[in-house]
Specification:
The chain is mainly alpha-helical. It is built from 6 helices and no strands. Helices cover 75% and strands 0% of the residues. Helix 2 crosses helix 3. Keywords: Cell membrane, Membrane, Transmembrane, Transmembrane helix.
């Protein structure tokens, strides 16, 4: 049976920077949970907004993005598969940044900040108080 390398779960940062990573992970995770949920609160508005950004005018895209944001946000919040969730959100934020520059330039700095924060988590790892830390300890045994 193959195992996941412990480096996938491990932190690259310690001390105060690990606390910073934890705070970033939780805040970004909660933000993406809210953003994903909002797509379901008003699916028509989310679909129209994405269509205005050049995406196909179908609710399927908004639903998939909403599920992606909800799932990734939940994973970040609990600190499970942090690098996987953050890596996926980096890709999502690249698309969002490009779309915002083309259609809503004032919103682009927000997506750039989210891209940078997720890139930091992808590099740093989950920080403290994360499920990944328990998994790293189990994989190291």
């Amino acid at each position: 049976m193959s195992t996941i390398p412990p480096q996938f779960f491990a932190n690259r940062v310690t001390g105060g920077l690990a606390v910073v990573a934890t705070v970033i992970r939780i805040i970004v995770g909660l933000g993406f949970i809210a953003a994903g949920a909002m797509k379901f609160v008003d699916l028509d508005l989310a679909t129209q907004g994405m269509a205005a950004a050049g995406y196909p005018n179908t609710p399927v895209i908004a639903i998939l993005l909403g599920l992606s944001e909800l799932g990734s946000g939940l994973l970040l919040t609990i600190g499970l598969a942090t690098r996987l969730a953050a890596g996926w959100l980096v890709i999502v934020m690249i698309g969002a940044t490009i779309a915002n520059f083309m259609t809503m330039p004032p919103a682009a700095p927000i997506t750039i900040v989210l891209l940078i924060l997720n890139a930091f988590l992808l590099w740093a790892g989950p920080g403290k108080a994360a499920m990944d830390n328990k998994l790293a300890a189990r994989q190291a045994v």
